[in-house]
């Protein structure tokens, strides 16, 4: 009985963690697309108005972003339910947790068939690169090396620290704004 | 954490001497009485349809329709035309005879005749198909693409100027029939380029991120057969056993890479093919050694192991363990040079005469967004790819 309860609590905690990470990543991707030249260069070639989704099958948490043009991404929140143009879907919550807890790199997850892509694969490759760049900048090198295929050689502290501070500042502001919105009665 | 992988290949392989004569039995076993052949003019002109038709006639199986005008780069219009012919003639099975284009076309036709409609674009993408399609058989006439065992097809949509990919395990044929008679008349330069295509499939399957124990077994067996038979066949094109070895190697490499994917060589090859129309096998031959050099430190161990299969146990034992990976690359370069000597298969992009140096930057940018790049062991940047292209230019 106790084992069953603790297992169920563990699964709930895992789901909340994935939800929270998706929300954090959504804000972080929006923020980094405003400050990092490489991310902007990569995202600029996405079609304007493209809606990108990363989600857990069958109807788990998701992260949805829109390319608003000029390489800028906009986080559309955790409850977006409109049409999407490009979707990377984890087959199971356990697979999303492996990636979001840095036990498995995003590229490894692709190689291990943990995810399915629906949409233009070349755009998915581009978005994966954006995701990797974001993780390389905002995470300490030791953790980032577990998350990305190859930590960029040319990313020095002088570039990384101001970039990370800028992103965390914007993410904190956006998350506070979200919390305020959620707390206010409609 | 232990390794995770998936492996899937439900295709029955019918291979060897008089394999074609098994086709009528396979057709009657599924109660097909009106099969349709999808092929191209080259196959027909080479007389490769004759043994198939004769094998069927002898067993009282009538071929209900033949479409023999599949071009090298098939399109949605052709798929629609063939599907209409299939319906008009009330066919009940498809037999693709040819190389990658005929096989991919037949896979797409099978979607339309099974699911209905005229718009093949509606079925583009991954996971769109949800049920088995009509009976489908493949008889490859080249030894390189491995399409007979892959669950992918690519068809050009000329109106929208895009290539439509189709991915589903339901695209796989019921059986692949590998008969050495079908590749005996293959011209030397096509034999060489397609064998290098198969060698690249096997090498990338064995060295890229999605490698697994089962695909490894197929990849190494394919490399061994190519290492042993390619130059024999180049010296003696009528070597039936050598031809069969290459055809089997192609199928095994196809099974390997469809389960463990390919990497940067293919990303470069897809981009080069799209921009310059250089044959896919030739692109593989051009890029393989340079990409292996680029990936070297990430793939030293598996690449060292491949030396045993490519060059045999004597060379492997005579080579110091620390030099085996480099020796594998040298062996591939040597193979490429030998093929140039035999049939003038180009060794550099410059030698092809079909690529302009000014196109290299565009090739690099397109390769950077190719789906195969995800599975490459190293994270290739635009600059890295430009450097590889500079070396391959010559």
From TrEMBL, chain A:
Domain SCP2: 50-132
Highest taxon of source: Bacteria
Pfam families membership: SCP2
InterPro entries referenced in this protein's UniProt entry, alphabetically: SCP2_sterol-bd_dom
Protein name: SCP2 domain-containing protein
Species of provenance: Marinobacter zhanjiangensis
From TrEMBL, chain B:
Domain Alcohol dehydrogenase iron-type/glycerol dehydrogenase GldA: 10-180
InterPro entries attached to this UniProt entry: ADH_Fe/GldA, ADH_Fe_C, ADH_Fe_CS, Alcohol_dehydrogenase_Fe
Signal peptide from the UniProt entry: none
UniProt keyword list: NAD, Oxidoreductase
One Pfam family it belongs to: Fe-ADH
PROSITE patterns: ADH_IRON_1, ADH_IRON_2
UniProt family annotation: Belongs to the iron-containing alcohol dehydrogenase family.
UniProt-recorded name of the protein: Alcohol dehydrogenase EutG
């Amino acid at each position: 009985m106790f084992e069953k309860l603790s297992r169920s609590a563990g699964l709930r905690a895992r789901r909340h963690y994935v939800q929270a990470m998706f929300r954090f990543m959504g804000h972080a991707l929006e923020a980094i697309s405003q400050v990092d030249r490489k991310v902007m260069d990569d995202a600029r070639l996405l079609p304007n108005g493209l809606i990108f989704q990363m989600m857990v099958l069958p109807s788990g948490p998701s992260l949805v972003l829109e390319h608003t043009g000029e390489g800028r991404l906009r986080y559309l929140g955790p409850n977006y339910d409109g049409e999407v143009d490009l979707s990377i879907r984890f087959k199971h919550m356990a697979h999303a947790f492996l990636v979001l807890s840095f036990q498995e790199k995003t590229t490894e997850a692709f190689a291990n068939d943990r995810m399915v892509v629906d949409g233009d694969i070349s755009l998915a490759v581009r978005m994966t690169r954006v995701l990797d760049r974001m993780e390389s900048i905002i995470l300490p090198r030791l953790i980032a090396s577990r998350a990305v295929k190859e930590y960029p050689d040319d990313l020095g502290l002088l570039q990384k620290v101001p970039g990370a501070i800028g992103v965390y500042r914007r993410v904190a502001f956006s998350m506070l704004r979200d919390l305020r919105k959620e707390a206010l009665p409609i | 954490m232990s390794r995770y992988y998936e492996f899937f290949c439900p295709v029955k392989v019918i291979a060897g001497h008089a394999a074609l004569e098994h086709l009528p039995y396979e057709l009657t076993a599924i109660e097909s009485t009106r099969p349709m052949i999808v092929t191209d003019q080259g196959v027909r002109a080479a007389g490769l349809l004759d043994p198939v038709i004769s094998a069927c006639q002898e067993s009282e199986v009538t071929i209900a329709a033949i479409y023999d005008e599949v071009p090298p780069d098939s399109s949605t219009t052709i798929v629609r035309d063939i599907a209409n012919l299939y319906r008009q003639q009330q066919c009940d099975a498809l037999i693709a005879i040819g190389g990658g284009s005929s096989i991919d076309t037949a896979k797409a036709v099978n979607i339309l005749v099974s699911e209905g409609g005229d718009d093949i674009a509606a079925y583009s993408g991954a996971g769109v198909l949800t049920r088995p399609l009509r009976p489908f058989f493949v008889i490859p006439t080249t030894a390189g693409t491995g399409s007979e065992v892959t669950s992918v097809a690519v068809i050009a949509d000329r109106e929208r100027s895009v290539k439509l990919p189709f991915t589903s395990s339901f695209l796989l044929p019921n059986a692949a029939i590998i008969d050495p008679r079908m590749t005996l008349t293959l011209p030397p330069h096509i034999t060489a380029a397609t064998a290098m295509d198969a060698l690249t499939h096997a090498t990338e399957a064995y060295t890229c991120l999605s490698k697994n124990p089962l695909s490894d077994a197929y990849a190494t067996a394919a490399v061994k057969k190519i290492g042993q038979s390619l130059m024999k066949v180049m010296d003696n094109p009528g070597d039936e056993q050598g031809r069969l070895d290459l055809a089997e190697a192609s199928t095994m490499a196809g099974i390997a890479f469809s389960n463990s994917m390919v990497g940067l060589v293919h990303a470069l090859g897809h981009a080069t093919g799209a921009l310059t129309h250089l044959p896919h096998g030739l692109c593989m031959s051009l890029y393989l050694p340079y990409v292996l050099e680029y990936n070297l430190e990430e793939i030293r161990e598996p690449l060292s192991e491949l030396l045993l299969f490519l060059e045999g146990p004597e060379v492997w034992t005579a080579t110091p363990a620390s030099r085996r990976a480099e020796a594998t690359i040298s062996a591939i370069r040597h193979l490429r040079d030998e093929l140039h000597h035999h049939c003038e298969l180009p060794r550099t992009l410059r030698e092809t005469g079909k690529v302009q140096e000014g196109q290299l930057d565009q090739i690099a940018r397109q390769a950077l967004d190719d789906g195969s790049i995800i599975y490459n062991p190293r994270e290739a940047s635009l600059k890295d790819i430009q450097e590889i292209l500079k070396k391959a230019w010559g």
